[in-house]
Amino acid sequence: MSDDVTRTRDEIAGVAAEALRHLLWLRDAGVREIAPPAAALRGGDARADGGPVGRREGEGAAVRGVGTSASTPTANPTPTPTATATPTATSPQTATAPATSEKGCGSPALAAIREALGPCTRCRLAAGRTHLVFGVGNPRAELMFVGEGPGADEDRQGEPFVGRAGQLLTKMIEAMGFRREEVYIANIVKCRPPENRNPEPDEMDACEPFLRRQIAAVQPRVVVALGKIAAQRLLADPTPISRLRGRWAEVDGVRIMPTFHPAYLLRSPEEKKKAWEDLQLVMKELGRAPRR
Length: 292
Ligand code: URA
Fold this sequence. Notes:
By secondary structure, this protein is of the alpha/beta class. It has 11 helices and 6 strands. Mean pLDDT is 77; it is low at 17-100.
């Protein structure tokens, strides 16, 4: 057999293995049905739609229809920011996973979680919110940040970490060598607690399953838990943040690094050095060099 034939066979086997991994990931993320790519329905070439073979690294094919994506869960490309809305009502014939234009829903799995949340009234925080703050960022990020809950700015804008603490978080992300759009950001609770009080246990209980599903959908390599509330909740461990921080933990196969909350760092800038040490452990884990 010629080298060319062997190489072609190996390539086909590689593509098939990658497609299988992707299907298993979709299944685990809760996707039950996949619509064929539009071009296939027309009898055309799927590659014309940026489909399995022709899709370039970084293209967010998932929102355009899960059947067109060949990316693996570990590839973690940054999506294009054009997560255009498709109808959330699905007919059996066009059962692509639901998509929405809302922030943080840039994959079928995330869009399905957002749809499951709906206009949530599972806890008393719903009454005081302007926006339910679902999340933001790369749906296949290798790095995810989880904070406590939206503040006034986040409630107004519907995006996590956009106020003063958020600006510091963005600087921390960039210092780690990432762009904000490359990571995924969410909170323990998705609605603003009144007067920025800590979320109550029953409020966190109501919201936590959705955050866990978001983590499972994004499949980050590392989650950074920002502050006491996020760290203690994610780890189910009441140890003070001063002792949790800087130590790796693992939950459901995801590595978790607790560190101080950016709002705390704004109040106690002398603690920034410790937070930076924690983030350097994360960078080492992800093979990242600090941005100069
Ligand atoms: N603090 C948080 O914990 N989350 C936000 O989204 C903003 C501030």
